[in-house]
Specification:
With about 180 residues, the chain is an alpha/beta fold. The protein contains 4 helices and 9 strands, in the order βαβαβββαββββα. It has one domain: Rossmann fold (3-Layer(aba) Sandwich), CATH 3.40.50. It has a 6-stranded mixed β-sheet with strand order 4-3-2-5-6-7. The chain has a 3-stranded antiparallel β-sheet with strand order 1-9-8. The protein is globular and about 50 Å long. The structure holds inosinic acid. Inosinic acid (IMP) binds next to strand 5 and helix 3.
Length: about 180
């Protein structure tokens, strides 16, 4: 596995500091409000698990699974719901928890979808952001760490289903995806 990693882009310690900071902000902003965290699978589950344990307010949570890039490093632009949430978000505040915002297509779709379900608000919290890659305009209310236009793995992010278990955010060696 180590041979496939080019290097560490964001260390686990830096990620941890950011998660604590976001947890404090979210706890303050949603104090006294009915909040549902919606983790976007598969990539968002590591961040969601860390983030929710930094919240000092009671929250409900659920998971939604959307199609990813498959075994490619390019976005197809097509968003498909594979598994929807089970709970009703009407009259509640929704916070979509993502691993990374890249083109923005996934979150734009999800934000619009959740708005049709009668929530009080729909906001986005992402661990990482690649703003230079944006194809659609989307407001990211809680942004973790901005990164350059590089394909990254670890901290929940995968390449062809692998490397999600790396604790740091790493860059993938181009020789791995050049084989595509
Ligand atoms: P978007 O719809 O282009 O914003 O893409 C969002 C999804 O693409 C993320 O939730 C990730 O699953 C995936 N993605 C985007 N960039 C990367 C990356 O650098 N590594 C791994 N997955 C990525």
């Amino acid at each position: 596995m180590q041979n496939d990693i080019e290097g560490i882009l964001v260390s686990r310690d830096t990620i941890r500091e950011k998660v604590i900071e976001l947890g404090k902000r979210i706890s303050k902003d949603y104090e006294g409000k009915d909040l549902v965290l919606v983790g976007v699978l598969k990539g968002g589950f590591v961040f969601l698990a860390d983030l929710m344990r930094e919240l000092s307010i009671p929250v409900d949570m659920d998971l939604i699974s959307v199609s990813s890039y498959g075994a490619s490093t390019k976005s197809s632009g097509v968003v498909r719901i594979i598994k929807d949430i089970d709970i009703n978000v009407a009259n509640k505040h929704v916070l979509l928890v993502e691993d990374i915002v890249d083109t923005g297509l996934t979150l734009k779709y999800l934000k619009e979808l959740f708005y049709t379900r009668g929530p009080l608000s729909v906001k986005v919290c992402t661990a990482f952001d690649k703003p230079s890659r944006r194809k659609v305009e989307i407001e990211v209310e809680y942004c973790g760490i901005e990164i350059p236009d590089k394909f990254v793995i670890g901290y929940g992010l995968d390449y062809a289903g692998k490397y999600r278990n790396l604790p740091d955010l790493c860059t993938l060696s181009p020789k791995v995806y050049m084989k595509e």
